Amino acid sequence: MPENSASRPTGPIDRELYRLAAGTLLVAFQGTTVPEWVLTEAERGLGGVTLFGFNVADATQLAALTGRLREAGDLVISLDEEGGDVTRLAYHTGSPYPGNAALGAVDDVGLTREVYHAIAGELALCGINLNMAPDADVNTADDNPVIGTRAFGNDPTLVARHTVAAVEGLQAAGVAACVKHFPGHGATLQDSHLEIPLVDAGLDVLRARELVPFRAAIEAGARSVMTAHVRVPVLTGDAPATLSSAALTGLLREELGFGGVIVSDALDMRAITDAYGLAGGAAMSLAAGADLLCLGPLPTYDDVRAVIAGIAEAAQEGRLPVERLAESAARVAALHAWFAEPRSAAPGGQVVGLAAARRALSFTGTPQAPVDPLVVELETPPTIAVGEVPWGFAPWLRAAEVVRVTPGEDGPESLLERAKDRSLVIVTKDAHRHESSRALMAALVAARPDAAVVEMGLPVWRPGSAVYIATYGAARPNAQAAAELLFPGLVKAATTS
User: Fold this and answer.
1) Each residue of 379-400: pLDDT tens digit?
2) pTM over 0.70
3) Is the keyword Hydrolase in the record (predicted)?
4) Is residue 453 within a helix (H) or strand (E), and if so which, with residue range?
5) Which residues are known catalytic residues?
């Protein structure tokens, strides 16, 4: 958990040092209006804010919130809008855009550019100037608990070309891209929200796999790069990359030639706080080469003040050169200058989301005309990165029964009885990662081999069903596209919201 403010010095801090320290922070707050403390800190030099789903009610409210922030200071206003499963603008309804796995499955860089340009148009209208996307990880670990469908795929060159397209789409609309998670989170089997994941690979493997998309994004002019709280022993030793000068300065700055803003992943994750504390991790990350520190949703105002004090203390003691803080301030100032460049307005384009999701579908077997269909959705624990974002078929179907069950608690017998003489559709997310889901699906398909299975995560594990559909994500258009295929005539009129 974040350090308590009582653990930090409470004496006065020189005004310029305070401004430099506060200028490195992207803070978060609860609610849909800006608290006074954020406005106060904005006037004192705060770097910016990171917004989450709990800050967003609708586009009008969000535009008012960001407008109030701009009145208080020159701020970086950021959030995670990856499309697909990770969304903040549509946290309460689900994104109208498919995510990276679906775009990678289509493998049309023009489509990826168009989708990200449409996302950027919505962000710009809401007053967001930095999007913590795209995800440039090469997802080589099927059981990766935190990346999965957030990645374009497992081939470095495919991921690279779509990462470039995403950067171009965002930045053409004046929204800075933040390419993540450097030096690569795709080969991990742990979630950095909970512990320090391990990437046990040599530098040659990193250069040929993880770094390929980052190198391409840098050459394409990406304005920022986000660090990963991953440990790469050959590069970072026992420390996570977020705190490693070898990773951030040696590899990212010097070898790859990145001159933009380095943004830390959320420092309230246990990969940082368990071993280093929030303020300690903040100072170490800046010393390693980071420019903006995303604190995450947990820290309070007391924690923020403690972080500022901890950064100032590290500077006063020589553990963090003041020159390093000045470098960060200059890079952030250059980012603000880029924000101010004139650009034509980006059009909205949620219709492209459904078109992309339709193109991403892959299936085997031939769907039959539905007979009083029963749709069984298998509840799947959300990841921390995704959160409790709605998913499934219910918003799109009329004259069809949709039930949500919990594998391991709900058995197949009652479902099979309920599905007697009816069409049966089984919907799951990342079945390969959840033994209880596989067991329930196997039992249902064994009794009903005519069933259709819809996988809304990665299509790694496949049961022997008559029809198998992969959507490569669980966003709203992914579900709508699959429902159209299975239930022609029963799907509600397509919408763009």
Assistant:
1) 998 887 888 899 999 999 988 8
2) yes
3) yes
4) strand 452-455
5) 193, 265
